[in-house]
Amino acid sequence: MKRALSALSLALVLPLAACGNDDGGSTADGKAELTVLAAASLTDVFDQLATPFEEEHDATVTFSFGSSTDLAEQVADGAPGDVLATADETSMGIAEDAGVTGDVETFATNVLTIVVPKGNPAGITSLDDLADAIWVRCADEVPCGKVALAVLDDNTITAEPASLEEDVRATLDKVISGEADAGLVYATDAVAAADDVDAIEIPGAEKEITSYFATTLDQSEDADLAADWVAWVTSEEGQSILRDAGFGSP
């Protein structure tokens, strides 16, 4: 069974795993092992993509999902991993500037949307209604926060959020739990949580489109398997799975 590690756990656990693995990137049962560091908004779709990939390559894929910025800084500092997937070019640039990446591929796009608890108890209909609501968004320095700031600025919205969250999944969780009347997340997060939230489209949000980037990492213990993952998410079948999850084509 795949284990999704938090960004914090990655910094603590993976260096130990790298030192203790004498098989050079393989598990105890002899399967190849791939570690993918990915933006939190990729959680559900990457889990879906992992199943056919594992079967095809007789491999185990382990994920660390979190803030793109945090993950890029970790790999730039030498944290182990095979693939990095970020939700913006700036975060990927951190890893590129550190000289730890291979070729970078754009593989998906996303747009911001408003999510509210199922049934929309606060009656939110647009960004304007945030002024009288308890709402949340991502912190300024992470990709979902940057795009939220841009969308709010485009719509001349000055309402302040009740809290700034570490990534898009933390933002979504605040809405699902009922701690917030609304949240600004990616459209794909609304699709993934459709049983728990309703989505309200933001007119013109596509002007601030989010692009996703993936690359192999120089510290990978299995460069060929890492390259196969990047090829998989950019393949026709991989792109079909991404579209079904609500992502746009690059």
The amount of beta strand, in percent, is 25-35%
Structural class: alpha/beta
CATH topology of the largest domain: D-Maltodextrin-Binding Protein, domain 2
CATH class assignment of the largest domain: Alpha Beta
Specify the overall morphology: globular
Do you know the CATH architecture of the largest domain?
Answer: 3-Layer(aba) Sandwich
In the sheet with the most strands, the strands line up as: 1-3-2-4-11-5
Portion in helices: 25-40%
Distance between the termini: 30 Å
User: Average pLDDT value?
Assistant: 90
CATH homologous superfamily grouping of the largest domain: Periplasmic binding protein-like II
Q: Tell me the domain tally.
A: 2
Oligomer: single chain
Largest sheet: 6 strands, mixed
Overview of the molecule:
The protein is an alpha/beta fold and 250 residues long. Helices cover 38% and strands 26% of the residues. The protein has two domains: 4-109 and 212-244, D-Maltodextrin-Binding Protein, domain 2; 112-208, 3-Layer(aba) Sandwich (D-Maltodextrin-Binding Protein, domain 2), CATH 3.40.190. It has helices at residues 7-20, 43-57, 68-76, 89-97, 143-154, 168-176, 187-192, 223-234, 236-244; strands at residues 4-6, 32-39, 59-66, 83-86, 101-110, 112-117, 135-138, 163-165, 182-186, 197-201, 210-217. Helix 5 links the parallel strand 7 (135-138) and strand 8. The protein is globular and about 55 Å long. The relative contact order is 0.20.
